[in-house]
Specification:
Blueprint lengths: L5 H27 L13 H4 L2 H22 L2 H16 L8 H20 L6 H16 L31 H16 L12 H20 L7 H19 L4 H16 L3 E3 L7 H18 L3 H13 L5 H23 L4 H8 L1 H4 L12 H6 L13 E3 L3 H28 L1
Antiparallel strand pairs: 1-2
Helix pairs in contact: 1-5, 1-6, 1-7, 3-5, 3-8, 3-14, 4-5, 4-7, 6-13, 6-14, 8-9, 8-14, 9-10, 9-17, 10-12, 10-13, 10-14, 10-17, 11-13, 12-13, 12-17
Amino acid sequence: MQQRSPVQIAQLYGSVASALVGGVVAAYAVAESRVDDFSFSDDGLTSVVITPQWAGATAAVVAAVGVALLHRWGRGGLASVFAAVGALVIALPAFVPVSASISVTLNAMGAGTFLAAAAYPTKSHRAAQIALALGVTATTLYFGGADLWRDRVARWSLTLPGDTYPVPSTVPVWILLAATLLVAGVALVARSGQETDDVDTRLVTLGVVLPLAFTALYAWLGSTSTSPGSWVTAVVIAVAVTVALVWRLPQHDARFILAGLAIGAVSISSISFSSDWTWAVPAVGAALALGVAVGWKRPMPQLGLGLLAVTALSGLLDAALTTVAYVFVLPLALGLAVASCMPVAVGAVASGSVLPFTLTLFSVSATFLDPVSQEFGWSTAPFEEHGQAAVTTPIPLTVLAATATIVVAMTTIHLKRVRTAVVT
């Protein structure tokens, strides 16, 4: 048997590792940049640009544009430059004083650029696309687990006059350095199949329009001071816009974008782990791997989304049952849904994967709909420093809306498949 060269090994396995690491780093950077007092600000535009919604939308738009540029004009060398520039922007607060308000946008731009570089070698590479999508989505959904190994530094945008309150880098510099070497190195030796090609303008349009539309809906109807009626209206419009845009896409690309919408909806409840539940992390990983293995052998996207719907609906049940669903069922559903949808276009991977942190109506706005949260300006979700894992679930109306969103995504996938079959 002919022995593979180092370049061939890098092409076979390096792109999977690069995609996974790139997705994790980008999603972690976006989640970690959250400003602690964003819900208190009412200073016009400033009250929007310091929100998690703005951070997610900025990263998504930059990633979509970056993927399009690399797809059309790029080579491995340019993708490596993207990785280095993205990492440098994320790490900038470690070397230059940067306030929390400015760091949100700056960090998101770096994360989006880094994600585009990690996505570049995944063209027609199913395993790498799965790794990228799971790196982004799993990190976003289980970001609360980061408290097991790090003490988060508070980030405040409201400060005394003259006090800029500089913040640290969202990702430690040494991790960024290692990740950059991996992502840039893999991009540099990306196989010759990564030649330039025409850009699917429909995917670029979706990758830019959806995040901007979600941000406009957040500012207009879905901010932290919204009412339940306005929030539901925002969700309905957001889902309608998504369905309208994906309907024009090829079937497989549309399916994964809709899966990303469903994954974003399941973030209606969030989970965090205490030191007593460290064992749950490998349990989540094992369930995730099982879902990927099943989806790889026998793609069943509708079953994966169905399990996501069950997980979201568990927010109406007892807290213990909800915890079980989010620790064991959710990762299984996530792995199955993602693996069943691949491979797709690179632009679809990037834009679909970021939907969980691009559409924050579920993960952020919904937690402020409780009347007490409205009165005092912060979420009334339970906080447990010690003890069991804690699942934060907002009011029942939001859980039902999230479940309905997943059902709409499943229905649209079915209708899209039927329509494609009839046309062909």
